[in-house]
Amino acid sequence: MALTLFSDPPETLVAELLAGVRAHNAAHLGAETSRPLAVEVRDAQGRLLGGLSGRTIYRQFLIDLLWVAEDARGQGLGRQLMAAAEAEARQRGCVAAQLDTLDFQAPHFYAKLGFETVGRVSGIPANPERFFLLKRYA
């Protein structure tokens, strides 16, 4: 047996690990139907004002990131991005959305959109509190 540590893992290793996880998941959940889902908003000059990226898998919408440019905040763009992405997730058959956020980012924003805190990580020195959020679709 040989244990190797990588700071920059080879793509082949990551692909092999992913294949192993997918095979294990398929044995428990059936065939994977993971699909990327992203939405963006740009101004008239083509500058990115914000966007959202995630994926739908096993009837859930997993949100990886949401960002709105500093000068475009407070105009409802985040809410519009979320609404568009969640509408598509529901079209794909999702019954819930999940994400995590830090205390200085947007836990209150997501709460206004109907997300509930289902977990927290706090008390780690020099680290912000992390919230794990879930929104069930009716």
Automatic annotation (TrEMBL):
InterPro entries in alphabetical order: Acyl_CoA_acyltransferase (IPR016181), Bact_Acetyltransf (IPR050832), GNAT_dom (IPR000182)
Any one GO molecular function term: acyltransferase activity, transferring groups other than amino-acyl groups
Domain N-acetyltransferase intervals: 1-138
Keyword vocabulary terms for this entry: Acyltransferase, Transferase
Key word Repeat present: no
Superkingdom of origin: Bacteria
Name of this chain's protein: GNAT family N-acetyltransferase
